[in-house]
């Protein structure tokens, strides 16, 4: 009996398999089954996977789903203008432009919506005026010259405006406006209407566009607004946290490599840990999104704790120096998988100061993240930076206090060990300097990372000053900043 | 006498300055002068600077200017459709849609234009069909339910489609199409027309959009076409060259630092050199542009040496591994400015092998750049890679051959020198291990870079195989690839 209740005959073949006997009539049925299977297995499975993915996105970033609903809402509202007859007759067939404006200018962040709306209104108005002017001149100059004047002006204006979209300052602020400018200019200057009719047309079109843009701005700001500025802020804070975890993770992984890799191998913790260690990769790839967010944030009105002229560019500077630290951490991550291992005695000697340094630097990064998240100057940061500098000093002392003679001894011990193993595993000795390479690299990359983190501290401090972050305690500041300067000096000239 | 020929009286003031006596009547003149100065000095200067910048862009990238001219041309042609009365009456007022299509879908690369045109046509057709269907259902179900059905269907469709634009697979291929889909659906389903009239409307609108899109594709492909694919290819090749120059520049700068910094300081050469050394920064920042180019290149028809299914994604993989090498070079660049310098004897000992390694690795990168530029497999690349591996081996040998006792001696020499200087400059000794740090870092980053370059070689080889690059000489390949494998093995297990 098969699963769908039909009887079937099986014949035992010579090679031990069985073959099912089917009547010829079921040939078509067979084909139908296959098509059915194809549809179920192929297309529906794909569709199901697609839906699952979409569900995953909606779950992890509900803001995106909210944006979809907001667009639906705005369009439904504007379609009332279009659908209801009294209103429809009021704005005429131009109501189409209100719908078009909503579809085209409604973006996921408030800033982007503002940018597009402002660009659309300015572009349409400017091009409308210019178009009417050119149209009038062409109409006045007689039937012969009219098409020539129109053609040449159109060609020149379209070429120049399109080219201007490549100029960075235009591209970042008026890219969309330039496109709308060309579009409106074409439609107005070429249209067969007389100038008086054009004014009437321009009036209704601009009023419908105004309806569309104001509705967009209204809906995007009132229902769960998504501010580009807040997103930039939280991205920066999150990236600082990720850097801190990566740095900590890399160093502790390097020094714990030998002891517990075996136990950790099949562990969930390790996977978690790995994703934490590789958080720096997000920082490496966040340049483009940071720039577009900062670009849109400029268009946003004052909201929450962000004033009108909040220095968004400073966030980009923080992002830039953060990325420099991330490059260093990437190189540091490369040290983890080196085949050559430093002599154990040296590794043990340096493990503590290295871990101390990495944890104190990641403390600094975490504090900076809190500064940006809470928009409050930190009283602790100077203390943490000086802690970090002390840790650098201690690491340098540890290197110094490891006398070269002892290094010699420990290295030759290692050599002997290796020689002994030679008889079993046929490995030859690794010379002293070679063995030092990875550890030396780790240490100096760690120190380099620290100095880059100090640039991040400076960038965040500049941001906090320019953006007028609240300070928790005004009185403590001068003395601790002196202290900080002193510590920087100590780090740069360690022997001073 | 002033410059404009008027007499003026000066009065000597008590504090030694002079004050000019003016008649009261010239007050207005003065203000006019100031406004004039403001216009000339402020606005016109800004405009002049802007024009200069634009001219610079047009000069350095004439393709951008050409794109402007192409848009102008396409718009002038399409406006003929709109302007000429016979044609105008033929396609009706819908000719507007042809102009709109040209303005909106004409992009600078052929691929991007194709992407937008195909999306526009598909989106419009699909939404048109669906819109007419929904419109019919709503009209059939009576006056009461009509607005409800229309409103709900519009809300659902707009929300779902807008949300789907966040799903990566939709975003990369159908982002624009989804927007057009929502737009057309709204316009069609809400319109007050009867279904028969809608069919007529849809027919003319789709035909005008077809005119617009075919004109766009025609102009963008026939007049100096700018292919996204070729741009991706040349960007990849250029980035490989830049990496090679950076690597070479960093290492030679490190070892030549002491001798000729003074002479080079005020030299034009140095500036040039610096921009070459910092070429890796371009590689670090090229991810976004590579991705968008690869995305558009998929839409391009076969052209030149690129077949229809050219593996554009493989270029992204090459870009990815290239960026990993760039991270390493960035860290290496950080070593250049270290305050602690390695003992001279050690530096001298390692200078030659380091330079040899960097020049052999940059040879590999340059050869890869030629492979991609010419789309021809290289017979030299295996030889160059084995050269690079030999150079790694030699650097390792050089480190080994520097006996630790001699290191000890040279280090203590340095210490003594430092001690002697102590009396003059009050610097204390820097201990042996500390002094080694920057050089050890440089060496191991250099070796790490080499191993990452080997990944680049593999990625380019995969690309060459998948894209069926011509091979210069088929016979030589098997033996040399064996040789290559052997060399890789040597590098990974240096003591094998």
UniProtKB/TrEMBL annotation, chains A, B:
GO cellular component, one term: plant-type vacuole membrane
Record field: compositional bias (Basic and acidic residues): 473-488
Main location: membrane
Superkingdom of origin organism: Eukaryota
Region: Disordered, residue numbers: 470-496
Segments traversing the membrane: 65-83, 95-114, 121-139, 145-164, 176-194, 206-228
BP GO annotations: malate transport; monoatomic ion transmembrane transport
Pfam families: ALMT
Classification via PANTHER family: ALUMINUM-ACTIVATED MALATE TRANSPORTER 10
Protein name in UniProt: Aluminum-activated malate transporter
Organism: Cucumis sativus (Cucumber)
């Amino acid at each position: 009996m098969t699963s769908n209740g039909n009887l079937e005959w099986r014949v035992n073949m010579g090679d031990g398999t069985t073959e099912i006997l089917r009547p010829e009539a079921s040939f078509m049925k067979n084909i139908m089954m296959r098509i059915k299977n194809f549809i179920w297995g192929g297309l529906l499975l794909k569709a199901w996977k697609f839906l699952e993915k979409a569900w995953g996105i909606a779950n992890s970033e509900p803001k995106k789903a909210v944006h979809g609903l907001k667009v639906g809402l705005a369009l439904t509202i504007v379609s009332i203008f279009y659908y209801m007859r009294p209103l429809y007759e009021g704005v005429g067939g131009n109501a189409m432009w209100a719908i078009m404006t909503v579809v085209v200018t409604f973006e996921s962040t408030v800033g982007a919506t503002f940018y597009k709306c402002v660009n659309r209104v300015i572009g349409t108005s400017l091009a409308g005026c210019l178009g009417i002017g050119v149209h009038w001149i062409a109409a006045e100059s007689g039937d012969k010259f009219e098409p020539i004047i129109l053609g040449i002006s159109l060609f020149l204006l379209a070429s120049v405006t399109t080219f201007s979209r490549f100029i960075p300052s235009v591209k970042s602020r008026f890219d969309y406006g330039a496109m709308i400018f060309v579009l409106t200019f074409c439609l107005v200057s070429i249209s067969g209407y007389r100038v008086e009719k054009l004014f009437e047309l321009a009036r209704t079109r601009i009023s419908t566009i105004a309806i569309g843009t104001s509705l967009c701005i209204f809906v995007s700001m009132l229902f769960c607004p998504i501010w580009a500025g807040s997103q930039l802020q939280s991205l920066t804070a999150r990236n600082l946290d990720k850097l801190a975890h990566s740095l900590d993770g890399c160093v502790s992984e390097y020094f714990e490599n030998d002891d517990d890799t075996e136990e950790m191998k099949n562990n969930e913790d390790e996977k978690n840990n790995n994703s934490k260690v590789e958080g720096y990769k997000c920082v490496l790839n966040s340049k483009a999104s940071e720039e577009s967010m900062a670009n849109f944030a400029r268009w946003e009105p004052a909201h929450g704790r962000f004033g009108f002229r909040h220095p968004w560019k400073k966030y980009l500077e923080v992002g830039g120096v953060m990325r420099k630290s991330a490059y260093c951490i990437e190189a540091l991550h490369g040290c983890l998988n080196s085949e050559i291992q430093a002599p154990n005695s040296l590794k043990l000697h340096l493990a503590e100061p290295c871990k101390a340094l990495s944890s104190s630097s990641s403390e600094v990064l975490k504090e900076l993240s809190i500064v940006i998240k809470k928009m409050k100057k930190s009283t602790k940061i100077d203390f943490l930076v000086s802690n970090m500098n002390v840790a650098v000093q201690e690491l340098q002392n540890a290197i110094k206090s490891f006398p070269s003679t002892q290094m010699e001894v420990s290295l030759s011990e290692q050599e002997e060990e290796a020689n002994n193993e030679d008889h079993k595993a046929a490995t030859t000795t690794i010379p002293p300097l070679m063995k030092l390479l990875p550890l030396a690299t780790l240490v100096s990359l760690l120190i380099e990372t620290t100095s880059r983190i100090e640039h991040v501290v400076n960038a965040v401090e500049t941001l906090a000053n320019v953006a007028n972050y609240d300070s928790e305690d005004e009185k403590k500041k001068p003395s601790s900043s002196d202290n900080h300067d002193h510590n920087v000096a100590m780090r740069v000239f360690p022997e001073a």
